[in-house]
Amino acid sequence: MPDDHCSKCCPVEPPKPEVPAPWPLGALVWLGIILGVGGGTYLLVMWAVSSAF
Prior knowledge:
Layout: H1 4-9, H2 25-52
């Protein structure tokens, strides 16, 4: 905590809240690929199970 003398002659600005950095494009592309493959596999398995019975 700054002492009173310093805060009177040079005002202390409160720290700005940290903003999370946006994800890089490559990470979003890989996330989309993984979700697409996982969703496609799920749908394929559900279709195979439902058509087997």
